[in-house]
Amino acid sequence: MAEASFKEIPELFEVDLGEALTARTEVLSTFRELGPPDLCHVVKSNGRSGQRDVGSYHYISGVDASSSASLAAYINSLTYAIEDNSAWFSKGSTWKVKNGCYCCFNAFSRVDIRVDVKIPGGVQAYVIDLRGERHEATPELWQETYVSALLRAILYSDDPNYWLDAYRKLDPITTPEGEIRFLQAAEGLFMKGWQVGSDPEIQVATIISNHLTAGIMKYFGDSGRFQQAANLFEKLTAKEPEVASLLARSYIGMNEEVKAVQIMSSSIQKTPHSYTLLHAQCDLLRSKGRQDWAVKLARQAVNCAPSEFVTWEKVTECWIDLGEFENALLTLNSCPMFTFNGRDVHRNLTPAKVHLPFLKPIGEILPDRVKTEDDEADPALLRLPAPGLRGTWARAYALLTRLVSQIGWDELLKTRSNVFVMEEEYRMQKAHVDVTHVQNNNSAGGSGNRVIHEDGTVRDSIISGETTLADHGDGGDDDNASTRGIVSPHSPRSASVSTGVNGSGVGAKEKDSDNLDPPPGIPMIRISTESDRELDGDGESLKKDEPVTEPEEDTTKVDVNGETKPKVNGAFDADDDKSGLEKPAIAAAGEEDQEKDSSSVQAPGSESFSFSNKRLCERWLDNLFMVLYEDLRVWTIFRAEVAHFKTQHVAYRKTGLEWEILGELGLRLHHKEEAKEAFQRCLDTPRYSQKPWAKLMEMYSDEGDIQRCIQTAIRVAAYQWADYTEMTEIALNLVPTSEGVQQRPLNAWRVGAAVEWDWKAILSMISQGIELLVPVGVLIIGLAILYLRGDRGPLPPGPPRLPIVGNLKYLTVLGKPRPWRLFHKMAQEYGPLTYLELLGKPVVVINTARAAEDLLVRRAGNYSDRPRMIVGSEYMCGGLNFAIAPSGEIWRKMRRATETQLGVKSLIQYENVKTDEAILFAYDMLCRPEKCIENVLRATASVILSVVYDQPPLRSLDEPSVHIMDDFIHKLNRAAQPGSHIVEAIPVLDYIPTFLSSWKKNAKRDFQKFSSMFLKEYTTVKERLVGEQRPSLLAKLLEGGSRYDMTDLETAWAAAITYAAAYDTTSVTLSWFFLIMIQFPDIQKKAQEEIDTIVGQSRLPAFSDTKHLPYVTALIREIMRWRPGPPIGLPHASVKASIHYTASSILTLMVDDLRRYQDDYYNNQLIPAGSICIPNVWSINRDPDIYGADADEFRPERHLNPDGKLKDGTGEGHFTYGFGKRECIGKHFANKALFIDITMILWAMSIEASTNASGDIKIPDISEDAGEGVILHPPPFECRCRPRFVGVEATLEQARNVVLSAHHAH
């Protein structure tokens, strides 16, 4: 079936042939509005007898659906898209498309247009109605289908809540002629637009509010090209005056506000009942700061459409603008809410196979689409109910969050208690009134009719049809909650009240001269004001500062349709609330039976209980308060944790998904800066997600940050392309002008004194690959580059540079011992960044943890490349050393494969191997301490060879495999040492022929030699796969096979590079451990005391002890911080890619050009494009802002809290493993190996300084470190290892014999 797949088109393979078409026919009657995306079904055959045909399908939008010919042309285009994996000499039959069927839903007539294509053969078009019957396709149906398909392509293109597997999105309009055609079709069907439905916030679709008008405004409005829309609406206004509201909005978008006002002024006389026209005026007034006028228009719009949510929403927004928060809350309570109906979808079928090809030209700059630890999140974050809100419920919640952002949670609760009756308050007052009334009845002789129950309620003892609640009072004044939210019965302006749509109270015409008079015959709905609420004709008003009784926790949550459901496994437990937020009390429900009981029963002479002062809160709004409480609670805890970690100088870590959720939470609660920081932190993780890039793009656009906006837009476009969206719905709408950066809709492209760039149009047109637009696109991109590189700003400080050669003298210094000392001195003089130039090549040395995190982690997408290393990477390693190789397909494959096998969970299977090696290591140290370094090297090599190649424990360092790897590591370190080869500084020397370049000849010979040796180990492991063997990394890579898509040579090199990377770090850290234990015996003793407490003397240490030995872990972290193996990290470089000057890959051209010439800025200092960035790990690990003023001292306690626990259980406590996407993949392996080795040594022996012939203790000077290449080695030293307790030698020897016996048997 793999041979039957399309090359770059996603598809789902059927279990039963034709089941997708059958399922679509069966669910046609369920399509309510625009319908689902088009369905393209094909049948493939390879021509072999007895071979069954294969059926597959994919969803698509954007195909021209104006005729059967255009749909048949799409199916014919698929015949050239099948993957051809057969070799030229192969005789096998290839798969071909046999026939196909294209299905497109007509949202106007509610039918499905289908085109059957036989290849070769004819084309048949027909219509399937909702009953599944066939009909003939007419020209009118084709026009409706064409517009329906366009609307789906436009409106579904960037809907984050609408996701389908194998959904391909094409650009529906690719030429100016196509745009004109769309406008003509829209004009012909405009009066029928209400038939296609409307957004879920609109209760009743009209000719103004529907999907057709939404699609027109989205297509032209997002790109700021309102002129075309205005031309269309100008013609339609003559037929339908209400279209003037859309025309006015178009002119406002074109910055022609005077014209828009004239249109609205003349149209309001013709259509005074148009709420859309009133809203257009209202929005214009709000933009001009006239909130008082805007609210009058919004209130009048409510009278025109009282059943529409959007009219009440607009009034609420105006009240918030005016600071009338009580009125805003009351109006929000009155909003009519609708059940949410999502977009139409197909029936989900279980496919036999899912084919989602990886689009390499663009997808290479994206992280791998694989599930990692960063796709996991705390259940409390996953269970937040707010992201599940849709439709009117989401819009109402947005208003509530806007309220709380302006007045705060405590003030919102106070406002809530001022305007709404709380449930406890309601019950107490109701019980008081009922008891008083019964007492009065009993005194009058009516004791036989009413009974007071134990719960305080009053009921009739005998049901009588003659006695009604109405007999005891006037219940007509009690409307439902919506009425109470907007009507003040005691207001003199509301003398007569009747019930309107949705139970809304309808009053008489307003008489105030300062308000606009509604048209005759239209009842006016009164919205209660502060003065209204203060009036109470029956008695005193209820006090606003009444205490709120806290009820039991609300066990309901709101689902996507706004309905309440029991909360399962609540997101947060009340006992764990650390936010300090007051939980909202439950308001009294607006249920009619409760209202009548409470309002109609009154006792003479008692205090009245009137709803004219307080209203009953709708239950849905009460539920939204609980949703808001959960959001605020999580956010408060999150910010408190961030502040705490910052004061402790510890990195605050979350997974990628958690950062993304917190970013969305910040946006919901209007904390934009904190949300932006969360999204930026999300980009530091290798998680495949478009959302953080899209959110940051919007934020940078709002801020007018052109450069970062373009950078994020490129990523969003790449994600869309990788997700089979061959169109870019990106609206940057940025205008760099002489006055500064502005954000406003664009209406032209002009290059002059004030340059205007319509980025939406640029990205859209270039991505389409139109041949005629190639030179235009390149020209505009060139202008953008020149603009962005104009005033580049100051460089970071650094030593003086000579002409041409720059700071070339430092290149030779880097080749001398201890070059990190020089960098550290520069860091103290120049600060976070040091700037050097080597023959015109910019080099930036990063000296602080903050700068390294900001650049190499948070901006990892720009600094994840490696500079070109001609000798060490290209020739000696053939480009297969993924640790130093530039970004590309090979690097991506090899890193993904090894990173998967060296993850925390994958390494559990190797714990027994590491424990066995630790036992052998401890035994060797106890028996031969004078050979400390040799023992360290043997133990390190042995454990890595065991894990990587499943080799038995090494007896000595004379093994051939050790010599090969030592030779490889030695030559690699020398090649990586700065200044070792002049060709690295002068790349043009690479063009010298091999026979004239000894370095090139030697490097190529080394590559052949090492490749042969690595393949030999590879073959050995591969041959053992047929039998039983212990797990090994290479075996897992072989078992991965096609999943990793690596050749034999790439797999062999991946295993070898893993060995080399782990060997240096682990062996050097172990060597430093012994020397440090000699220097600091008190620290050694403290670690041994912790081990004795947890492990004791009766057993050996194990990995299960890790979480119980925090001091040992802190000791290891401090060793790696204080004496990092690589004191200078491997250099990073800005991401680059090759440029392809073809129309089909013009988007790649745009990405590469902008990225190639992309400068960056940090603390207002320029980091030139293409800079080599060197992390100064030695200085970063001594950053006083992180580690305190005593960072130069060795003190493990700095990694512990006062209670003795680790400060950061998920972090490393140092920066030795590197940064961002180039972080060491073997860090978990090294951590585990170091823990078990060091714990075993400390458990078994005491490490002491050796003595000379005269008995004097020899303690070497620890500051005299030795550097070779890029590795920091300790100075030569000797040590003694003394058993810590009786029987330890026997215990280790017995364990050693067991290990060796097991391996011998294996």
UniProtKB/TrEMBL annotation:
The keyword Metal-binding applies. InterPro entries: ChAPs, Cyt_P450, Cyt_P450_E_grp-I, Cyt_P450_sf, TPR-like_helical_dom_sf. Keywords: Heme, Iron, Metal-binding. It comes from the Eukaryota. GO terms for molecular function: heme binding; iron ion binding; monooxygenase activity; oxidoreductase activity, acting on paired donors, with incorporation or reduction of molecular oxygen. The keyword Iron applies. Its cofactor is heme. Heme binds at C1224. GO terms for biological process: Golgi to plasma membrane transport. One of its GO terms (cellular component) is exomer complex. Residues 529-547, 554-566 have a biased composition (Basic and acidic residues). Residues 467-580, 588-607 are annotated as: Disordered. This is Cytochrome P450. It comes from Tetrapyrgos nigripes. The lineage of its organism: Eukaryota, Fungi, Dikarya, Basidiomycota, Agaricomycotina.
